[in-house]
Automatic annotation (TrEMBL):
Annotated Thioredoxin domain residues: 43-133
Annotated organism of origin: Micromonas pusilla (Picoplanktonic green alga)
GO molecular function: protein-disulfide reductase activity
Domain of life: Eukaryota
Signal peptide (from-to): 1-36
SUPFAM superfamilies tied to this protein: Thioredoxin-like
Record keywords, A-Z: Signal
Pfam family, one: Thioredoxin
Region (Disordered): 274-300
Gene Ontology cellular-component terms listed: endoplasmic reticulum lumen
Protein name: Thioredoxin domain-containing protein
InterPro entries listed in its UniProt record: Thioredoxin-like_sf, Thioredoxin_domain
Any GO BP annotation: response to endoplasmic reticulum stress
UniProt keyword Signal present: yes
Length: 300
């Protein structure tokens, strides 16, 4: 027989069925939810079987996850908007969907789920519990409009770390960045933005420990890049955005310029072909204390 906790979540599934909606409309709403999510490969189906590997022990990607159930009309209404946000953030933040049912009861319990539809964000890192001394990913509840894909995308962007990209303003800062990178190549983005964009933040997270990341504003590029060997173009003529890849500081070789499209897929493929190797344990989530200080590797 089921435990009281399991029965509680089984009741939650049943409560998601609006009793004022006719049975036919419920079936239509449920079918619409499935179509809206399955038709968009950007939204990944999650359940008890893949939740831990894809989300909890994934230290290189952040997630936004929606929860829905059969017969939930608001869930069906939100699904196209959620899928649109996933397309907008494709390759930057992962988007997943959990159908609340027998295959997802454990993960629903772990998050204390009490309602559907429900949307949460999970960063790539874990937070140390000072009392149990164990680390866990802390889910952040989305509390804004589920009818706005832009709001959901903005929420997704907040899950990315801000401290993995070095801002460079002069040639000396570039030299220091290369020295600090040690055995890692350094990816430098020439940008017109005043702050680091979500795409570059996500790449810095995905390739942590394999590539060092920096950026230079286009107005500073002539001074920063003037003495860079092997740079084919005049620094003053480089139009942003442009990605330059420097070999590790202690090695010879000229700087390369990424010649492909400046999108998530193309940039990730280019960096993968040039990144340093990583040990399997490097893929685990980093652990921070409640104040944001790094503690160490995941402790479960």
């Amino acid at each position: 027989s089921r435990s009281p906790t399991t029965r509680r979540y089984a009741r939650l599934i049943e409560m998601a069925r609006p009793w004022l909606v006719a049975a036919l409309l419920l079936c239509v709403a449920s079918a619409h939810t499935a179509r809206a999510l399955d038709a968009d490969a950007a939204v990944i189906d999650l359940d008890d079987g893949n939740w831990k590997d894809l989300v909890i022990e994934n230290g290189r990607e952040a997630w936004v996850v929606s929860f829905g159930a059969d017969g939930c009309a608001p869930c069906a209404q939100m699904a196209p908007t959620f899928a649109k946000a996933a397309k907008h953030m494709g390759g930057i933040v992962n988007f997943g969907h959990v159908h609340v049912g027998d295959a997802s009861i454990k993960l629903a319990q772990s998050l204390g789920l009490t309602k559907v539809p429900h949307v949460v964000g999970l960063p790539a890192h874990k937070t140390l519990n000072p009392y149990t001394k164990k680390s866990e990913k802390i889910a952040v509840e989305y509390r804004n409009s589920t009818a706005s894909h832009k709001r959901i995308a903005e929420f997704a962007a907040t899950l990315l770390p801000d401290d993995r990209v070095t801002r460079i303003t002069d040639a000396d800062a570039l030299a220091r960045a290369r020295t600090d990178a040690g055995h890692l190549p350094v990816a430098v983005l020439v940008t017109a933005k005043e702050t680091t964009g979500s795409l570059f933040k996500s790449l810095a997270l995905r390739f942590r420990g394999r590539v060092a990341f920096a950026e230079v504003h286009v107005s500073d590029a002539p001074d920063v890049l003037a003495s860079v060997p092997g740079l084919e173009a005049d620094p003053a003529t480089i139009e942003p955005p442009a990605l330059l890849l420097f070999p590790p500081g202690g090695e010879g070789g000229d700087v390369e310029r990424h010649g492909g499209e400046m999108n998530a897929r193309s940039l990730a493929a280019y960096l993968e072909s040039n990144a340093a190797d990583a040990a399997p344990e490097d893929d685990a989530p980093e652990v921070f204390d409640a104040r944001g200080g790094k503690v160490g590797p995941s402790s479960g």
